[in-house]
């Protein structure tokens, strides 16, 4: 009787490469790693993305009512966005950057808003973003997350 062959798994690389609409993307695999983040949920469908954008637009409309500058797809990153707004504007503002715009375009389940909010407007902002599902606690060091 011949001994059975032992099945040897091929080593897995810590990343995989995919192509989506002509754009190559490298994604890290976090399977079987220590302290791995929770797995992401499935991307939103086109209809869900449309509804999510409408939700963000309504939130921005309410914030503008309280004289808060709101910008969508503003600048390339949050640090560039903060810098550019602060160079020409002294009031309160909220925005999401180009990187967040790309994530929304591909079905992200959350929108992270960057901000600079004074204490006098913080109560209004907290009230508004909580209506849209955010659990932001008013901490200026944290982004405001609006879930889909």
**What do the pLDDT scores average to?**
80
Tell me roughly what share of residues is in helical segments.
Answer: 25-40%
Radius of gyration: 21 Å
Structural class: alpha+beta
Shape: globular
What proportion strand?
Answer: 15-25%
Number of DSSP helical runs:
4
Widest β-sheet, arrangement of strands: 3-4-5-6
Distance between the termini: 60 Å
Helix and strand element order: EEHEHEHEHE
DSSP summary, beta strand count: 6
Largest sheet: 4 strands, mixed
Spans of at least 5 consecutive residues with low confidence = 10-19, 24-37
Description:
The structure is a single chain. About 16% of the residues have low confidence. This protein has 148 residues and is of the alpha+beta class. It contains 4 helices and 6 strands; from the N terminus they run ββαβαβαβαβ. The protein has a 4-stranded mixed β-sheet, sandwiched between helices. Strands 1-2 form a two-stranded antiparallel sheet. The chain has a domain of 102 residues.
């Amino acid at each position: 009787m011949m001994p059975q062959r032992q099945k040897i798994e091929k080593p897995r690389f810590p990343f995989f490469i995919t192509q989506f609409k002509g754009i190559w993307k490298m994604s890290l695999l976090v399977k079987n790693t220590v302290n791995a983040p929770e797995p992401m949920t499935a991307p939103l469908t086109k209809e869900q993305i449309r509804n999510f954008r409408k939700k963000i637009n309504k939130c921005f409309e309410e914030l503008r009512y309280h004289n808060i500058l709101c910008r969508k797809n503003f600048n390339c990153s949050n640090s560039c966005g903060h810098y550019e707004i602060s160079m020409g504007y002294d009031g309160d503002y909220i925005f999401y950057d180009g990187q967040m715009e790309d994530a929304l375009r591909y079905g992200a389940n959350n929108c992270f808003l960057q901000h600079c909010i004074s204490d006098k407007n913080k109560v209004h902002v907290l009230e508004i973003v909580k209506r849209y599902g955010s659990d932001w606690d008013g901490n200026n060091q944290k982004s405001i997350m609006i879930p889909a």
